Amino acid sequence: MQKLFELIQKDPAFKHIIATFAAEKQQTLIYGLSGSQKAFAIALAFQQAPRPTVVITANRETLQQLQNDFLTILPGTPVWEFVPGDIITFTTAASSIELTAKRLDVLSRMAKGYPAVFLVTAEAAMQKVLPKQQFINNRLTLTLGATLALDELLKTLLSFGYERVDQVDGLGQFSVRGGIIDIFPVNRELPLRLELFGDEIDSLREFDLTTQRSLASVTEADVLPLAEAQYGNKTAAFLSYLPANSTVIFDEPSRLREQFGKLLRENPEIKDHVFDWPALSAAAQNYNVQYFSLLLQKIPYAEVSTIISVMAKGIAPFHRQNELLVNELTGWLERKFTVVILLSTTDKARALQQGLKEEDVTSTIVDPQHNLLVGQINLIIGTVTSGFELPGARLAVISEQDIFGRQKKKRRPRVAK
């Protein structure tokens, strides 16, 4: 998307967004953004200044839209979801080992401070976690070549809630065969096999659960406790795990406040286990903060020092009406706009290209990483939730959904029991 990003940067507002995103510590309100415009703003700023970035959304639908958009416009960048714990849902699934593993893994990644994007719903953001230092202290780090006493390792794994078995076949298990110890940490996708030579870790590798064969070698790996309950009292905000050079983005703060209030009203028993909006806002003051909003608004408990207005428009849906699409495309070209249309497959791009050709409209399938035809219609393979018009950059971006509408998922045939 490099060439597309370069074109977007011609818009003065987006230039300003990039500058404030990379600031050390300030609060910025950015209004006029909607839909995939937000994903493009985050992706462009992150590409210019990679840093730990948290995006807090009101609900999971919005989170998933950002997630899907980033697959196309921010490929190769680690994007992690910090899922909510079970204090609200109280379901068996929510308290599963897999869910706990995801939460602990993301907290660990935040604590390490690697550049990545962390997506968080209001429900997950408000939940209290263990203070960062206690979390770090309750983590076993295995390092190739380091000294490690077998007895101490086994005691630690048992205290972490891991189960000793003859052969590891699932999360939270470990086995011992002489100086070979297999462990499946809750925070890793593959289990680990370490070999001791005396008290030294002589080999540290991942292995395949099915074949039990060793795979890639690793130099260091963390092993986290099996459950958050192992950590004791939770009193901290998850934001406290971030390093100082992080950026926190609140998406639609008014909706976030409403969601915080709604969850507390509907679940009064969680009051002691969560933060309200004022408390989480206070926790965010330690970082660079951006508020994304469609409308200009006053944000309670925020101290906004910079306001950026984005002059962008959404794309009206074409409802599969070719005439409407051709007229709009012709109008953009007459105004010297560059048009970018994102389609999910090459076949769809070629079909649209042929359809436009029959209407005497020229389009070209391009790779936006290396080429973009300015002032022309570009067809790109990829998907975003919604398109937009950016007059300041003379750019129009159209999504497949804008043209064809939301694709209905095929219903799976019911299987007779």
Structural summary, described in words:
The protein has helices spanning 2-8, 12-21, 36-48, 60-73, 97-112, 122-125, 132-137, 150-159, 253-266, 277-284, 322-334, 346-358, 400-404; strands at 27-31, 53-57, 79-82, 117-121, 140-143, 163-164, 173-177, 180-183, 192-197, 200-207, 214-217, 220-223, 247-251, 288-293, 306-309, 313-314, 338-343, 363-365, 377-381, 388-390, 395-398. It is built from 13 helices and 21 strands. The longest helix has 16 residues, at 97-112. It is globular and about 75 Å long. Helix 2 packs across helix 3 and helix 3 (36-48) crosses helix 4. A hairpin with a 6-residue loop joins strand 10 and strand 11.
List the defining traits of the structure above.
417 residues; alpha/beta; 7-stranded parallel beta sheet; 6-stranded mixed beta sheet
Question: In summary, what is this structure?
Answer:
By secondary structure, this protein is α/β, with parallel strands linked by helices. It contains 13 helices and 21 strands.
